[in-house]
Every structure is written in C-alpha cells, then in structure tokens.
Amino acid sequence: MNSNQNNRVAWLRGPAAKCSEPATEVARPWRLVLLGAPGVGKGTQAALLARHSGACHLSTGDVFREATSHNLREQTLAMSAALNFMSKGSLVPDAIVWQLVRERADCLHCAGGFLLDGFPRTLAQAGALRHLLQSQGIELDAVVSYELPNSELVSRLSGRRTCANCKAVFHLTARAPHFAGVCDSCGGVLYQREDDQPEAIAVRLEAYERSTAPLIEFYRNAGLLVSVSASGEPEQICIRTLAALELRRLNRTARPEMIGAETFAP
User: Coil, helix or strand for 226?
Assistant: First the structure.
C-alpha cells in the first residue's frame, strides 16, 4: 500500500495554488477515469484506490465543496459562475465544469497518477477530455465503470441517513448509528435527504443511464473500459479493481492485440 496522501491543494484551490506536499513519484502511475451510478460507492473506491496506488483523487465534486465551505476569495471566472448556479440550486453547465478541469490541467501530470472522478459525465465532456489529454501528452490507462443492479442501488441510497450538523453519513443496515436517529460523531439529528427518497432515486438513476450509456460505449470503443462489480465490502471491491487493472496492463504488455478488449472483474 502506498502511504502517500496528496493534499490536492492545486486541484481544490485552483490554478494559482500549489500542493504543499507533492505526490511521491510512482514508477508506473495509474491514470484513470472512474464511472459509476449514484450509490455505487465510487467516492469510497476513489479514496481506497488513492491510498493503495498513490494516485491523486481529482474529484470535481470536491472542488465545488471546497469553494462553498471555504468561501474562497481568489476565484476564477469559471468558479464564480459555478457558485452562482449552485446558489440557485441549478446544475453547473458542462462548459463551466470543463473550464474548471482545464484550469487544473497541471494536476493531470501528477507524479503519482490520477483518478478523475465526476468528469466526464457526458459524451461532449469525454471528447473535450480526450483532446486535453492529447494536448498534454498524457494517455489514459483505463476507465473503470462500477456496476451494480438498480435494486441494490436503490437499497443503498434509500437507507442512507445524514447528520444535520456534521454531515456524517450512516446507513440503516450497512452502517447503523448506535442510537436510532442520532449521529455517533456529534449527537446531531440524522435525516433522509430528499434526493435519497425512492422516487427521487429512480429519477437520478434514469438520468445517469441516459447520460452515461453513450459515454460507456465511447470508452468501450476506445478500448479503455474496465467493468467492475461493486458488490461486496469496499476493500474487496478495491482489490478486485486493482486486480482487473493489473490484468489489463499485463495483457497490453504481453499481447498487444488485446488492446481494445474490455476487462471484466465480477
């Protein structure tokens, strides 16, 4: 396991910032895109993969959370525009998300590699990312797509409870609090988010399928897709992911004709 944990300052704070603790250089770094439906556990897997591989977790969601929680004074025009949309409860347009990623292109050269999480979300974003990587002389190693039946996704999401105070997340069955409705960390009240209601979950999953189906086909045609079952404990899924990636790397090295073949990790 790689113990290096990049503090991601350059990613979170924008192009003018520098990481105070640059990532340790890795001989063969992973450069990955992570895909997965709401509730699949993609964020958890990103954190585990970062810990195991030394790659830097580049999450667009974390960029927005950092900006809102710290009220950053030095904001680019793109970030200011993004916060304006968020303050109104609106989705941030593709063009603005793309600009935020492009501003942080130096992070794609991280010596430890990177795990791109939350971008791309659409076919247009995938095309833009491909051109950016080509202009930077960077090649993706793989695109990991975490798969789980919709019935399990609904169960995971509908069972989530969030602390109104510290925002800690629990689950009625998988990670139940010691006392029902009470946060273990701060004693705050636990509640169910509106977007974790079954009706809202169905809408979210339908939207994900609609936008991601062509995206998955795009990466399958590019020979980059690695499909991984997201069933089981988080550490098991992480080990499954790393094994699938290593197998892909081995096949590409030993058998060049395998390039373009999809890897499955059930």
Answer: strand
